[in-house]
Amino acid sequence: MHCRRLTYFVAVAEELSFTSAAERLHMAQPPLSQQIALLEKELGTALFDRSRRSVRLTPAGAALLPEARRLLAELDETAGMIRRVGDGSVGQLSIGFVPSAINGPLPELLRRFRAGRPDVELVLREMAPDPLVAAVERGRLDLGILYLPVSASGLTQQVLGEEELVLALPADHPATASSEIDLADLADEPFIMPERHDVPGLHAAVARAFTEAGVAPRIALRGVWLVQTVLGLVAAGIGPAVVPSSVATANRDGVVLRPIRGRHRVDLAAVWLPDRASAPLAAFVAELRTP
């Protein structure tokens, strides 16, 4: 049976008038009558008793009416589901992120995306930069969020925000009395340095800040990649550290943050494979690019 003929049949069955049904369907009556006749021929039975004064359903027509309504409703539901898949409203989106990204724009991005597409399943993974980029490159993650620079050339990048680098000091450190600190003034201090990954990221930005200040930092501890752990070590008095300003949201006891003299920044970015065919990914990327 043609779905359109079922639509015509339901209209006539509900109106019990070919004239009213034709008006409802915005078509002429003769083509409507012809389509109903073709449906009856296809089914091999009359669906309506017709007279000059009235139109009534036959027993076969009465039996078909609820089934026709059900079939048309299921067709509408299926078409709607396909449209939602096509525009990224359903499906799955997997995102990997470095832990400190949760202090920046990521929560608001996730909130907006989920508000607009509540039926998309979000798979979120907290990861170190190297395995994160590898997972995106191999298609195991749809998108990654981490600090630039990223050395993988085959990935599309979208900057999410620029953060100032600040100095994290133990609360009892004498330099906390200053409103702004030159790294050169702390040249003799042993610093906690972020781990150096294959992905340059935060380590490269921190190293560049020292280079621009003309300082070759002494290292109290290296190889720590979780910013939360870095702050804990600063609070323990192991040494100061250069960290992204978003760590201020963590409000770590025993740590004081101070601006660094000069402009030292790090970019947080999203990266993904440009040819990855995923409607939820395309929808998320559109959200990233929304002003």
Given the C-alpha coordinates, what overall shape results? rod-shaped
**Rounded to an integer, what's the Rg over CA atoms?**
32 Å
* Alpha plus pi helix count: 9
What's the level 1 CATH class of the largest domain? Answer: Alpha Beta
Largest sheet: 7 strands, mixed
Let me know the average pLDDT. Answer: 88
The end-to-end distance, rounded to whole angstroms, is 49 Å
Order of helices and strands: HHHEEHEHEHEEEHEHEEEH
Structure summary, number of beta strands: 11
| Unreliable sequence segments | none
CATH fold topology of the largest domain = D-Maltodextrin-Binding Protein, domain 2
What percent of residues are in strands?
Answer: 15-25%
Class computed from helices, strands and strand pairing:
alpha/beta
> How many domains would you count in the coordinates?
3
What is the CATH architecture descriptor of the largest domain? 3-Layer(aba) Sandwich
CATH homologous superfamily heading of the largest domain = Periplasmic binding protein-like II
Helical residue percent? 25-40%
Walk me through what this model shows.
With 291 residues, the chain is an alpha/beta fold. It has 3 domains: 3-86, Orthogonal Bundle (Arc Repressor Mutant, subunit A); 91-159 and 272-288, Periplasmic binding protein-like II (D-Maltodextrin-Binding Protein, domain 2, 3-Layer(aba) Sandwich), CATH 3.40.190; 161-267, Periplasmic binding protein-like II (D-Maltodextrin-Binding Protein, domain 2, 3-Layer(aba) Sandwich), CATH 3.40.190.10. 40% of the residues lie in helices and 24% in strands. Strands 3, 4, 5, 6, 9, 10 and 11 form a 7-stranded mixed β-sheet that branches. Helix 5 links the parallel strand 3 (90-97) and strand 4 (119-126). Helix 1 crosses helix 2 (18-25). The longest helix has 28 residues, at 59-86.
